[in-house]
Amino acid sequence: MDCKLLLATNNRGKVREFRSLLSNLPLQLVTTAEMGITTVVDEVGGSFEENARLKAVTLAAESHLLALADDSGLEVDALGGEPGHLSARYGGEGLSDSDRVDYLLSKLKDVPWDKRSASFCSVIAVAIPGGEVELCYGRCHGIIAFEPKGEHGFGYDPVFFMPELGKTMAELSPEVKNQVSHRALAAGEAYKVLERLIGKR
Ligand code: ITT
Fold it and tell me: How many angstroms does the Cα of residue 69 sit away from the middle of ligand 1?
């Protein structure tokens, strides 16, 4: 194993965030695209944990590198926790982020403000090629806004309103999102796991 960490994701928003969240590690962060890996892992698991594990293990085995994968999504209480681990495909295949936001808003059109609570969840899996896998968790709470606001971030950020900050996640600068997000919390745990794994070599 060399000193590279494979960011096992095809989501450019996640890559941007991980590059910043893990920048102080003594590891070279590389993407699947940079390594010429075109494998798309079928997310057939029934939970964030299963899919994060599947992506990290498959791509660690293929690249022979330490690999980090994130499976994440939005859980909306009024929708019984949907879209959850199906967040990337909510509303059908081939939709854009803004199409999915519109679809979500249409599902919540009759739901009043005090019943629009939701959380973002991130499960990060760190896998050693042919070896152990460690899981790290992060969650943050918010309310689904009535309309999108803000230009930063990706996915459902424009409708994820954080009451304690008085802004949607898309209105936060990348630096602030990386202090408060579900992914920042999980990445804090993953950072410690990676430090320990590096120390063992
Ligand atoms: P990879 O599997 O290649 O990492 P993906 O986009 O398919 O990329 P997921 O299966 O984990 O990733 O789906 C996560 C979806 O949840 C993502 O497409 C977003 O729509 C949403 N999501 C996750 N984290 C988010 C965040 O920080 N802000 C906004 N939306 C987020």
Answer: 11
Question: Which amino acid, residue 9?
Answer: T
Output the ligand 1 site: residues, CB below 6 A.
Answer: 9-11, 14, 43, 70-74, 87-88, 120, 153-157, 181, 183
CATH class of 4-200: alpha beta
Residue-wise DSSP of 78-136: GGTT-BGGGGGGTTSTT--HHHHHHHHHHHTTT--GGG-EEEEEEEEEEE-TTS-EEEE
Catalytic member of 42, 70, 71, 157: 71
Q: Where are the domains of the chain?
A: 4-200
The two structure tokens encoding residue 122: 């991130």
Given ligand 1 and candidates 141, 144, 156, 176, which is best to mutate, with the most ligand atoms within 8 Å of its CB? Answer: 156
Query: Going residue by residue through the chain (201 aa), what tens digit of pLDDT does each one get?
Result: 459 999 999 999 999 999 999 999 999 999 999 999 999 899 999 999 999 999 999 999 999 999 999 999 999 999 999 999 999 999 999 999 999 999 999 999 999 999 999 999 999 999 999 889 999 999 999 999 999 999 999 999 999 999 999 999 999 999 999 999 999 999 999 999 999 998 866
Global model pTM greater than 0.90: yes
